[in-house]
Amino acid sequence: MASSSFTRIWILALLAVVTRSAWANDGHGVRTETAEYKRVSREIEFLASDELEGRGPGTEGIDRAADYIRDQFRELGLKGGAADGSYYQPFPLSLGNQLVDGSAKLILENGDGERRELKVGRDFQPMTIGGDADVTGQLVFAGYGISAPKIPYDDFEGIDVAGKIVVIFRREPQQADESSPFDGKRVSAHSYIRTKLLRAAERKAAAVILVNDPYTTAKSEDTLVPVNGFRGASRKVPLVQIRQSVLDQILAKSPVRTTDGTELKSCTQIAAYIDEHLQPVSTPLTGWKASLQAKFVKRETIVKNVVGVLEGSGPQADQTVIIGAHYDHLGYGGFGSRRPGVYAVHNGADDNATGTSALLELARRFAALPEPLPRRIVFIAFSAEERGLVGSRYYVEHPLFPLEKTAAMINFDMIGNVRDNKLLVFGTGTAKAFAPLIEPAAEGTGLTIDAKSGVLAASDHWPFVRKKVPAFHIFSGMTDIYHTPEDDFETINVEGVVQTIDFTEKLALAIARLPEQPVYVETTRQRMPRSRKGVGDYGFTPDYAARVTGVRVGSVKPESAAAQGGLQAGDVIVAIGTTTIKRPPDLIRALRSADRSKPLTLTVERSGKTVPLTFAPLKPEPAAKTEAEKNKAPTSKVP
Length: 639
Known about the structure:
CATH superfamily of the largest domain: Zn peptidases
Largest sheet: 9 strands, mixed
CATH class of the largest domain: Alpha Beta
Number of domains: 3
């Protein structure tokens, strides 16, 4: 990432360049020598740099990002959108509960006089979802903490846990069995932490000790979940997680016995027995008791939406077109991260440095127009989107411009991974006037637009839709690195971002010039599209947390292209074709650019040796149905 001095130099350069350069597009992408390309590229890199700390609420990095956006609006001559003329719309944000330093203790004792005090963060972790704790009680092992009479399976049947501390596994039995009554290989509601806590509370348990299930840890590390790792309000049953090694030490002295007298002396043995017999082995852990203490306090911070305004001119100047993007991300992980237990900067290059850069680039273009537009344009960089659309929800409850006079909202969220020149545009059905605007806006950009009439119930357009404001969501699709530390600048298709900005510029201008204010139309809720092609299509999962040169393989799906090509868990991928792989972004870029119709060659390191492998070509994906095909009536009732 760029150093502080380098960053300051090119920020000054950015501030000096506010006029639009000549657009260059050959139909296959944006020419990278244009000033626009360089400006957008540098801006994404800055917003996604380690210096901004993942733009997490409560960090100095997110304040630096807000100040940068404000300064750009000011330099461009945009007015501040707040009532007092400033650019900030501040609001309070709860960061959840925080563990009070020195308050967490977990002491294990047995009948032989053995006493062990565990170390917080290494051996155990209290969880905010369970609330404060000050309990002492006998230990009872209760399998997965599941009560499912319809299956039938009940870990609590025949045992008394009232006033005791219950030890349970995460998730559920038979996770690898497609025929499992626990919804096959899919996650059922019995796996949810809140469900497990509710079942324990119903039986008056004093506290719950959670242990990672062996099935999951066979594929990854036995990591402790962050303090705020489980969402939801306190369940009034104290919850703490311990490592499997701690429980294994207890089981070595107090094994679980099955009905035929077999002793199960480890977590792995217990899980294997339950998987095979689908029969609980719940039992008191004779002679063992635990003392648990933890105290939490609420943590709150002030964050802000950043709002810049270009006034319109004429009879429709009191109407508003909002162009928005969220600039916050996950900070150092934890809440929302798909790498639980990994404390690392989550730079959020795609999510959503790309959208923020697009917002600023459109502000530059519109500020350079020789005449005002017929409608007011309001640019909003939203905060706290990752915390549940808090910033956009706050705006619609405290609008700076009347919502009934808001003609449209255009939202950028994750536009950095345009593949094959295809861009997703949701919300074309939220106003009758919208659909006809798409094709003319795409003309000359090199993009093919996958237009969706419905909207996703996610991201900052959604609160506006709930208030019946017509809205677009501009989106390039999900990726394997979504909400991980690997979402870095190096993975971004900057050409696709600039193409997307060009498309949206024409779309927004068309909306601003519509003869009548668009009228909201109720539409459908869309499902989130699956991840764009990448690592997962070949059938292996990288271990992105591994500290190696290359990318370590965490697991390989049986009968996949990777498995048939000889890839093994633990291999370290060091090359794809002639491309050297040193970091996860290298792997992601190489796989996305690979010709899937041809064999894929790669090199791995295995047990100190270099091993060449070849994957068979992937089968082509079926062509996506058009809206007309989707709506066509079936001609036969045969499934």
